[in-house]
Design goal:
This protein is mainly α and 86 residues long. It is built from 3 helices and no strands. The chain has one domain. Helix 1 crosses helix 3.
């Protein structure tokens, strides 16, 4: 089990969020321009926004699923243990 826990303060999380947004922004511009030509991202900011939403959504979904998997595994282990002790 991965057992994710958040130990950072709200202030740290806020700072990390803006750094993550910056990283997504830079990656969006590079990826779009690499695929569609230099300057294309600047001419189509809606693609930058869509890229950033997609990256953010993918990361969020992955973290939520990892947490859910850990939770379900813990419950299954507890049920198995209770069943063998009964």
């Amino acid at each position: 089990m991965s057992n994710y826990t958040i130990a950072a303060s709200p202030e740290t999380l806020l700072q990390q969020a803006s750094m993550t947004a910056h990283d997504y922004f830079v990656a969006a511009i590079k990826t779009i321009d690499d695929q569609l030509g230099s300057g294309y991202a600047k001419e189509h900011p809606e693609l930058i926004a869509a890229f950033m939403r997609t990256a953010s959504s993918d990361f969020s979904t992955s973290i939520i699923m990892a947490q859910t998997q850990d939770f379900v595994s813990s419950i299954c282990s507890a049920i198995r243990k209770a069943a063998t002790n009964a």
